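Extended Data, panel c. Modelled sequence:
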Amino acid sequence: MSIHFSRLQEKKEENFLEGCNLLHSWLQDTLTTGLYSNKQLDKSMSELSSRLVDFGLPSVARKLRVLRNSLSDGKEITELVFPVFSELSLFCRMMEQLGSLDMLEKEDLLTYAGIPFLKKQIPEEHAVQDSWMYLGMSRDTEEKMQVYRHWFYGIHGHKNCLYIEFKFGNWNNSSLFFPGQIYRGAVSYFPSRVPVRIAEPPAKKGQLIKCEIDQFHTVEQALDHFAWLMSYNPFIQSYTYLLKDVRFACEQNKWYVFDNKSGGILLDHDLTEIPRLVSLSNHPQCQFVAEYKPHAFRFLNVIIDGKLVGC
């Protein structure tokens, strides 16, 4: 019988805890040696990532592989390493305090490590019925995998939800949803202190409607809200906001988004897409659907005169 994680079998929990101890020891040794003086960093990351898969921490292993590949491409070591190492150090510190964590905090640790919560295990009370407006999609490439993040907004409950697809190989297109379209039905949130991700998208398609949403944020308000979410789940990866009063600025070939009160936040877009965003922002009735991942915004769609249009 497992001691700390109710949905893990005893042997799997033992392996998981051993893998966490291995990660913690490696972090301490690596930081004690120093990043720039560590000639074996590339090799040790490769060996550790392989062992962590065996111990049941596939997502942590993937983070290390992605970091290793980025470093081999010649990117700046401190800019890449410190955010990842900070996350991993916090993960290890929380694992040391398992006895004081509640069930949802433990679920967030398992999610971060990459131990999936099976759909059939989701309690029925986690299902939320609403009319869900499709806000847009964000796509990333991780190794040979395409990751599609689909964002919906509950018209009545004013809750965001996120449906993630992982696609491999040649047939890696995402499911098709339409911005502004209403999809009706119940969605089941995975257990978390900040429930965002859902097991399946709402299935029943409704009509296109005017986007009558009053939950708009300035850039400053969005950052404050994301900081509040992180106080409950420090491993939350992204969240979507409807931004108003948006301005853009360029500094040293990097584009930033800001409002009248906030400083600039990096814009995660190809440079060829920027002129259209800047032009749209001059419209007096323009707001943006934007996904925030720590330290950067990615714009998904545009709302003009209450109607969702492509970005």
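The longest helix spans residues 10-33. This feature is highlighted in the accompanying rendering.
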